[in-house]
Design brief:
Helix content is 14%, strand content 30%. It folds into two domains: 186 residues, QueA-like; 94 residues, QueA-like (Thrombin, subunit H, Beta Barrel). The strands form four sheets. It has a six-stranded mixed beta sheet, with helices on one face. A six-stranded antiparallel beta barrel has the order 5-6-8-11-10-9. It has a two-stranded antiparallel sheet with strand order 1-2. The chain is α+β, with helices and mostly antiparallel strands. The protein is built from five helices and 18 strands.
Length: 327
């Protein structure tokens, strides 16, 4: 995946195009793989208009399909402030529970700290309380930059279960329906292979795969490998610099297993094609590769920034969704 780079490729204005709101689907198709597919040959500049279920035609035996198995958690909590006003907390990272300390432990209370965004009529105050349920209460610990806050969540019971019970899915800002969220969103705003909770946005390129389509791809002699990269809210952060090289890219947690590394290396040695589902899978694989393209097991936070001129070490083909203008 290499191309000739010009100075215009580094200008944010080069990524501006007209996108009427009516062209942004507000609901998913009844059949995941019935979405439209644009096939682009970067070398020959040839394009084909297909359906996603046709993608199987482009795989060959010996290829490797790499998917991101992160799972979106219900990161939006609707609550009430001490004053009685409404407040919404969007958790930006999956909370890590800590054993509770201090008053209340005997009653089974535990604690987890999170960084998030609070939406309310007025900016939250330090030590302000946010009541989400009788078993889930937040306290604002710090006011951070970019409107973020650090919140202590005190809870009784299982935190993951409480989030499932009281949280809403963090749908992208461009999904703006009058009727709000539906129960369908909990299932459809996940890939069929979502496994490890931690994302605040879905790796959307994978939303079009069905179990049947994946089985059909495997039947052609294609192996499937998984990586985990928890998509962060930074994926929606606007680019505010004219030269995209000056953009401060966000970091996201990833894990590439030894098994996946072996599959990638075997595929490349045998001359197979490495397909990445989504830019998150690309980021994970390229981050885990050395200068020769050999992938090793990796885990931690990844701040790799890929823009025009980047020399890909591992990934041959990319499956991605359309992106918003200047994003």
């Amino acid at each position: 995946m290499e191309s000739i780079v010009s100075a215009a490729d580094f200008l944010l204005a080069s990524y501006q195009f007209s996108l009427p709101e009516g062209n942004i689907a507000q609901h998913p198709l009844a059949q995941r793989d019935y979405s439209r597919l644009l096939v682009v040959d970067c070398l020959g500049e040839e394009t084909r208009d297909r359906h996603f279920f046709d993608i199987c035609d482009y795989f060959s035996a010996g290829d490797l399909l790499v998917v991101n198995n992160t799972r979106v958690f219900p990161a939006r909590l609707l609550g009430i402030k001490e004053t009685g006003g409404k407040a919404e907390l969007l958790i930006l990272e999956y909370p890590v529970a800590k054993a509770g300390t201090g008053h209340g432990d005997a009653d089974g209370w535990r604690q987890a700290e999170v960084v998030g965004l609070v939406k309310s009529a007025k900016r939250p105050q330090l030590e302000g309380k946010l009541f989400f349920s009788e078993n889930l209460v937040g306290t604002v610990l710090a006011l951070l930059s970019d409107g973020k806050v650090r919140v202590s969540l005190r809870y009784r019971g299982d935190l993951a279960l409480l989030l499932e019970q009281h949280g809403l899915m963090p749908l992208p800002p461009y999904i703006n329906r009058e009727e709000g969220q539906t129960e369908e969103d909990r299932q459809r705003y996940q890939t069929v292979y979502a496994e490890n909770p931690g994302a605040v946005a879905a790796p959307t390129a994978g939303l079009h795969f069905t179990p049947e389509l994946l089985a059909k791809i495997q039947a052609k002699g294609v192996r499937i490998a998984q990586v985990t990269l928890h998509v962060g809210y930074g994926t929606f952060a606007p680019v505010r610099v004219e030269d995209i090289r000056e953009h401060a890219i966000h970091a996201e947690y990833l894990k590439v297993s030894g098994e996946t590394a072996t599959l990638v290396n075997e595929t490349r040695i045998a001359g197979g094609v490495v397909w990445a589902v989504g830019t998150t899978s690309v980021r994970a694989l390229e981050f885990a590769a050395d200068t020769t393209g050999r992938v090793s097991a990796r885990s931690g936070f990844c701040d790799l920034y890929i823009y025009p001129g980047y020399k890909f070490r591992v990934v041959d083909n990319l499956i991605t969704n359309f992106h918003l203008p200047q994003s």
